[in-house]
Specification:
Oligomer: single chain
Radius of gyration: 38 Å
Helix content: 40-55%
Strand order of the largest sheet: 13-14-16-17-18-19-20-21
Strand content: 15-25%
CATH topology of the largest domain: TIM Barrel
Length: 584
Amino acid sequence: MADKTDKSTILIVDDEIVSRYTVEALLSSEGYNLVFAECGEDALEKATELVPDLMLLDVMMPGMDGFEVCSHLRANPRLAELPVVMVTALDDRESRLRGLQVGADDFMSKPFDRAELRARIRTITRLNRYRRLVETEEKLVYLANYDTLTGLPNRNLLMERMRQTLGRANRNHQGVTVLTLDLDNFQMINESLGHEVGDNLLREVAQRLTGLISEGATVARLSGDEFVVFEEADDPVKQVSDTAQRILDRISKSMTFDNHEIVITASVGISVFPSDGEEAATLLKNANAALSRAKSQGKNTYQFFTTEMNTVAIKRLILENQLRKVLERNELCLYYQPQISLTTGRIAGMEALIRWQHPELGFVPPGQFISVAEEMGLIIPIGEWVLRTACLQNQAWQTAGLPKVRIAVNVSSRQFQQPNLLQAIKDILIETRLNPTYLELELTESLLMEEDHDKKNSVFATLSELQGMGVHIAIDDFGTGYSSLSYLKRFPVNILKVDRSFVKDIGTNKDDAAITTAIIAMAHSLQLSVVAEGVETTEQLTFLHQRQCELIQGYFFSPPIPVKDMTKLLVSNDAQPFVIPPLP
């Protein structure tokens, strides 16, 4: 006999025990899984639990009769398609008509004819199992080829359609364009408004894309907020440029979900068959390379793939792989650039600057790897290493009897997002035994502008506690961002650093001279110290000296230098301070 899971399940509903026994006797040899219910309520409960292949339903029962049971079944999405054969001793046309109206599939009369009962049930269960099999296969095919959220083709169907289209285009010497798209800052939508709003937004984007493309084109969703559009084209560059711009314009139109008005933009990368590749996977890879470039150039734009971009992508991949190993391989080191007091000529502080000594590439400039480390999340362990190394070195200099000076360490916005940053800094100061007075943390203007005062562990709260410990707080590259007087008054800040871009042309550019003068005056009005970066000439030094800038950092006195050279400079400067040219 077949396993129970292979049998058709028949739910027999009848309040009369004799009728139930009769049906059981007639069907017991047929190999069905027979389940019995004595009333309408029991029938609905068992039907919901089992979802049988057939219900043999008596019409006349006390309480909930067969008509009511059938009505409830048809109102339940899980049971709406359940075959129902009504059993009745009534042979009137009105009862049968009512049964059809509430959703019955067939009727049988009592007493049962054995041959008729077996034949009808055999036919209905066979058809029902076949229907379920077809529905299951159709569902599996759908799930294998379509995205359940948006209804768009998924990667599997996309690749199949691309292979077919590329084969046809190759035979017909036709162009094909591949456009990859993802939404800018989509993660912020999920985090701030919730995944339900994010899902609704993705559905809306899918509808907007399908409403824009021409007949014969395909829109697919690969994953997350990544979509692909591809189509054949007679004039690929012009056609896909127009399509890309229309997509950008359409997506950027506002949407409203749960009373939230949302404006989101997209970035688009484009590759073209056959110039950028002849296989689907290659074209997608190259379009994604172009997409990355579009994002790096400010987002809400589109970019075409070039071979140069592919080279850049490979270098980036190599760089990421190497970055993951820099700490365990001990390839990082710190250089130090002194900050000179224009009052005494002595070293009053220094900035710790990270360097990557690659065994094959030599020194890798920070500009080439810091932003990558930020994106990868590696800036957090790297930043902690920088802070610990700088504090250890400063304490070592002080223990050796050298002048006590502050050491400045840059802290990124990504580091400030750590909930345990404050504790990490405290632990490092305790571990290295460095007095907090000799530590300075350099932050960007944008970090302060992103402040959320409602957060318990806010930037403001963290900086306030650090300053209360004695740590100095500096605003790096001041003047290049928001330069808001209001946040300088609100936040616990000790030092402003004038960006080198203003210092560079301070003697020839009236605007730079005016901005620098204003920054110094504003800082002094708030009892803040000023450090000018990038000082290289006597002219720059004199200008800053005249405006009473306290500290100078730049090649005029020293470039960033390794520990050994910095140690020598501390010794020599202690014995003989730098000579500050007198004011004219």
